[in-house]
Amino acid sequence: MKIIVDAMGSDQRPTPDTQGAVDAANEYGIEITLVGDETRVRAALSRLSQVPPSVSVLHAAQEIEMREHPALAVKEKKDSSIVVGIEQLKRGNADAFVSMGNTGATLAASVLYLQRLKGVHRPALGALFPTPQGPSLLIDVGANTDCKPEWLEQFAIMGDAYMRATLGLEQPRVALLANGEEDTKGNQTVQAAHALLRERARATKLNFIGNVEGKDIAAHLADVIVADGFAGNIALKTAEGVSKMLNDLIRREIKRNPLTMAGGALAMPAFNKVKKILDYTEYGGAPLLGVNGVVIIGHGRSNAVAVKNAIRVAKRSVESNILEIIRRGVAPSA
Amino acid sequence: MKIIVDAMGSDQRPTPDTQGAVDAANEYGIEITLVGDETRVRAALSRLSQVPPSVSVLHAAQEIEMREHPALAVKEKKDSSIVVGIEQLKRGNADAFVSMGNTGATLAASVLYLQRLKGVHRPALGALFPTPQGPSLLIDVGANTDCKPEWLEQFAIMGDAYMRATLGLEQPRVALLANGEEDTKGNQTVQAAHALLRERARATKLNFIGNVEGKDIAAHLADVIVADGFAGNIALKTAEGVSKMLNDLIRREIKRNPLTMAGGALAMPAFNKVKKILDYTEYGGAPLLGVNGVVIIGHGRSNAVAVKNAIRVAKRSVESNILEIIRRGVAPSA
Question: What is the per-residue pLDDT for B333?
């Protein structure tokens, strides 16, 4: 198996990307091609010990910054690490593409070059939402703002396939995100999608458990939470914002006097444990589902461990033949 | 000024409701009518000292439980404290209605009996989102799931009026909730509302600052955050869920060993401060805006302080003539 890794993805590029790729090549015994500025990537590699021969470098002269307009950047930077990497995947020179870079650009390049899997209405972006009981996949978190009910139905199918493939869940609990748990809740699109999913659950193995509310996400009441990219993005970002706000506020208040500071120092192992439990780096990046290729996108602030885990998720997706599972799932006869 | 207070609203009814009402009557020098089971309310009053003559009781034989279906309960329980209280407001026997009870039922009764203010497309439910820098009003959080752009525009106008009236903000920063801060983000409805609000900001004093993302809510980047009731509800509930999850998780991890427990005990003043900073009871309940009457709805788990503060907010809304401000704001000539 060969996985293309964007060497110019993370905020600290190319160091964590290169390190994570080398670690993955050693640990998983797979081939990796690092795409990016060859001089910088080779320099990063030269600082590492144990670079196996299965790690190669493919030069890409440009890089797409986080702040750039996704579609525009993809159009104008044909020699960027993202576009070059996705093109390699399209040509069949690799099995998966992994990037910690600009999410929108990776999405745009994937849709443009890889195109949709046969039968898929719209590709969707998943995001793993950390909870103490394990992660939930929120899908879509921004690829499609206005959705038809049939699209949401397919997001459910794709999310279900992904959680089976990468986390080994046997019967992922699939739910629709709504403004109440009752079946009658939701906007018109969600209500229509609810009916479609009930029907599909009767005909297939899909474990559709109905609606969940926003507060049920962190409570891990479902493994796959389906939303349009507008609502899904709002839920994900609101959660990030609240988490950061609470974290900052607790730190600030603890630092206010020596006694609480001493207490904070003593309690530090507990805080570190909480941090570890909710550590996104363990889950290894978010999938772009519904395009004709395995594409995993990680946080810009990823470290080498996060990069390695994203590569692991890509590997598992390839091994479990997720593209074929999705293709079958969305086929009209299914 | 006379304010009707639902004595059978809170989870611990009628104690916090009655206590809060008496405290408000004493502190603000206003008349209060407690609506509810007369025997139980009088018993609760008899346990309080300093019940001023400005506090009266109006009997209502029924009460609507939190779990009841709102519209059905309002239809079937004509003698419930919510319906009787709202009817008093409609008849002009009071200036405002305050309840800690079933939000949906209070909304349904208000729309049914008070009806909409002239010019208002749809009443909306606001919720105060606590942040360290002060509260933001999220509107709508569940009254309307599928909205037209003009409705969102009016939610902005109503939210702006409310934050000026109750928090004394001179130029509340009004924003649309979207999946990105750029002007081009949002679903079709939000994009259309964006154009309407830009236009209105040119013509009036409305301080429309554009789009905010989910993560900007907790960062207090806006004072009024406008969304349809579907997305607004998801944002609010997701935040509640994450907050509870983090709180539970930190407690659990601190309790795991004696050292972190000692640390947690020492740091307790800091945690209490965080709790106080984010205490919803300080803000005094959420407004139902756009109906022909001042209606404030508080949390079921309110204590007497929260009830008193909800009454204070109702009083300020009446004093600032919020109904007239909204009426003028939504008038076609405005």
Answer: 61
Tally A–B CB contacts below 8 A.
Answer: 221
Tell me the pLDDT of chain B averaged across its residues. 94
Amino acid (one-letter) located at A329:
G
CB-based contact, B269 to chain A, within 8 Å: yes
pLDDT in tens, B61-102: 999 998 899 999 999 999 999 999 999 999 999 999 999 999
Question: Does pLDDT of A60 surpass 90?
Answer: yes
Question: Could you tell me if A307 and A16 are in contact, meaning their C-beta atoms sit under 8 angstroms apart?
Answer: yes
**What angle do the packed helices B304-319 and B149-167 form, to 10 degrees?**
100
Tell me the C-alpha distance between A186 and A41, whole Å: 49
Containing A99, the helix (H) or strand (E) segment is strand A96-99
* Contact residues, chain A, for B253 at CB < 8 Å: 270-271, 273-274, 277
Q: Which are the contacts of A244, defined by CB distance < 8 A and separation ≥ 6?
A: B215, B218, B219
Closest approach of A37 to chain B, Cα-based (Å): 30
Lookup result for tokens 């403004």: A179
Q: Is 90 exceeded by the pLDDT of residue A236? A: yes
Contact state of A238 with B266 under an 8 Å Cβ cutoff: no
User: How far does the CA of residue B26 sit from the closest CA of chain A (Å)?
Assistant: 34
Amino acid found at B250: I
Pair B158, B116: CB distance under 8 Å: no
As given in the structure block, the two tokens for residue B69 are 């279906």
Instruction: Give residue A334's pLDDT.
Output: 46
Residue B201 at interface with chain A, using a CB cutoff of 8 Å:
no
Query: Hey, which residues 289-308 in chain B have their CB within 8 Å of chain A?
Result: none
What chain B holds in terms of domains, given with CATH numbers, is 2-120+290-325 (3.40.718.10), 129-280 (3.40.718.10)
Taking the Cβ of residue A256 and every Cβ of chain B, the question of whether any pair is shorter than 8 Å is answered with yes
CA distances from B117 to A88, B113, B127, B136 (A): 61, 12, 20, 24
A129 SS3 class:
strand
Residue B233 above 90 pLDDT? yes
Q: Report CB contact under 8 Å: A237, B250.
A: no
Rg of chain A over CA atoms, in angstroms? 20
Task: Give the pLDDT of residue A39.
Answer: 97
Which positions in chain B touch A240 (Cβ < 8 Å)?
Answer: 214-215
Query: Residue B282 pLDDT more than 90?
Result: no
Record: contact A242-B244, CB cut-off 8 A: no
pLDDT at A286: 87
pLDDT tens digits along B144-184:
999 999 999 999 999 999 999 888 999 999 999 999 888 88
pLDDT band at A279 (very low <50, low <70, confident <90, very high): confident
Hey, are the CB atoms on B186 and A246 less than 8 Å from each other? no
A259 vs B: CB within 8 A: yes
Q: B241 and A229: CB-CB below 8 Å? A: no
Structure tokens at B8: 């059978």
Cβ-Cβ contacts under 8 Å, A242 against chain B: 217-218, 238-239, 242-243
CA distance A263 to B5: 43
pLDDT value of position A333: 60
Are A266 and B263 inside 8 Å of each other by CB?
Answer: yes
